Each structure stands twice: as C-alpha cells, then as structure tokens.
C-alpha cells in the first residue's frame, strides 16, 4: 500500500514539474513575441504625425555606412578580383577609413559630403513607413572610375530591407530608387528584385518609357524615366527633393514638381511576390561627389489629397 502511494506521489510530482517547464517555455515565447512587436512598433512609429524630424547631425548619429568596392573600368558591376584572380572582399559596414562620408558645417548647419570614390551608401538606423522626406542635393566637381565619362550619379533608396550588396553593383539593399543624377532627377530604378507599377508611354523611336499620368499602367522591374527634367542647373546649385511614401504608393518630387508617381511596391522572393512598404532610407555613393543637407522626415496618416489624382 505504501509503495503504491509513493509511486503515485512520484508520478504526480513528475507531471507537475513537466507542466511548470512547459509553462515557463510558453511565457518566454510570449515575452519574446511581445518585445519583438514592441520593437517593430517603435521603429515604424518614429514621431507623431505632422512633426518634422531632422535626420542629419554633425555626428551622423542616425545613420550607418556600407562600402563595397572601387569598381574598375570594364568590370560590368562584377566583384573586382585580386592579383590571384579571387573575389575581393567588400569593405563592409561602418569601416569608412577613406572618409567617403563626412559631415561638414555650412552656415551653421550640418551637410553630408559624399566623396564618390568607393561604391556604397549611408542608410538610416531606423525603419520608416508612411512619411514625407525632404532633402536638398548639389553636385561636387569630382567623378571617378567607372563613371568618369558619364553623368554624375547618386540616389535616394527607400523601403530598403535586408543585407547590403544584393544589387547589380553589390553595394545596396533591396529597395526602390528615387534617381538622383544630372538631368535624371526623379527617374525610377528598382534595386535587386523590387518592382513598381507606373503609368507611362513609350518615347518615340526608342525603347525607353517615360512617366505619363495619363498613360497605361505597366509593371516595372526596370528603368522608367521621369516626366521632365526639373533639376536646378548651375555649379553649386541646390535641388530640392521630396519623397512621399504611403502604403504601397510613392511620389518622387523635384523642386515641387511631381517627376514620378508609383504604386504597388513589392519584390520577388524566389517565385513569391511580397509587399515592400517600409524600410530604411539609403543615400548612394556612386562615383560622383555629392552633398546632401536639410534632411528631414514627417510621419503622415494619408497620401496628401492634392496628389490623389495620380493614383486613380
């Protein structure tokens, strides 16, 4: 009788112990999920709607850096080789010993200077969605291989996700590009497997499509030209850029003019199409000296009503 009682007590104790272990595991999982959700909420809800937030300071404290390679003439975007014919390793994150990215003070305000000599970018530490981004850009004098004989080039990349180096030039994250280039401000380029829908028409006697608010909507996994060239001309002249992102839609605005309207932001993960509606902001270094200033962002709760017609 006593032996049966002892065995029964032992079994009960074992069951209770297992239950406590399972309960603890469940609580740890629940806590982890709660913390992850809270982190995502804090990342995407950066400020109350309507408040402008400066993204640039003298310490570049809200940005990280990524540098890949000094691309060479004729490498076609491939990873450069060393003397033994092996791929050179990318410089990587926050290893800017060449001072490609620096902040200078101009009239008491911080200005981001990008030398242009090594491909790469600065990118925000924070993930953003549903916002207006304002910034100004101007060109420096220097250009570098492999774009010595091409127009000066940079870009504002948005909805940027994942690791750097997944693009054609092995230098940037997956994302959408608001082109910043001489005579090409506001053009669209997809980065990696990104896609957008754009109303456009084909330019006469070319294979190039140009943004046309009254044109037919096309799926773009490639280049589309802005409706017009609104860039401020002249040495040292600043051009005002504005990017509006809400949900899966975006507007690329140059000096107050809508250069491009885009919708259905997405990307391909293998054969699966996924939405691309939030992410980090990247500013490209692409063989041209360039400056950015007055970089600020505002959270919004709707696409501004004056632009609604672009998305009908």
Note the main attributes of this structure:
mainly beta, 19 strands, Jelly Rolls, single chain, seven-stranded antiparallel β-sheet, 14% helix, twelve-stranded antiparallel β-sheet, 2 domains, 312 residues
Which helices and strands, and how do they pair?
Blueprint: H1 2-44, E1 52-54, E2 63-67, E3 92-93, E4 101-106, E5 109-114, E6 120-124, E7 131-143, E8 153-161, E9 174-181, E10 188-191, E11 194-202, E12 209-211, E13 216-220, E14 239-246, E15 249-254, E16 257-269, E17 272-275, E18 280-285, E19 288-299
Structural class: mainly beta
Largest sheet: 12 strands, antiparallel
Q: Give the overall silhouette.
A: globular
What is the domain total for the residues?
2
Name given to the CATH homologous superfamily of the largest domain: Exo-inulinase, domain 1
CATH topology (level 3) name of the largest domain: Jelly Rolls
- The succession of helices and strands, N to C, reads HEEEEEEEEEEEEEEEEEEE
**Number of continuous helical runs:** 1
Helix content range: 10-25%
Straight-line N-to-C gap: 83 Å
What is the residue-mean pLDDT, rounded to a whole number? 89
The CATH architecture classification of the largest domain is: Sandwich
CATH class of the largest domain: Mainly Beta
How many beta-strand segments? 19
Unreliable spans: 1-10, 14-23, 29-45
Strand content: 35-45%
The value of Rg in angstroms is: 25 Å
Pfam family, one: 3keto-disac_hyd
GO molecular function: hydrolase activity
Protein name: 3-keto-alpha-glucoside-1,2-lyase/3-keto-2-hydroxy-glucal hydratase domain-containing protein
Domain 3-keto-alpha-glucoside-1,2-lyase/3-keto-2-hydroxy-glucal hydratase: 51-298
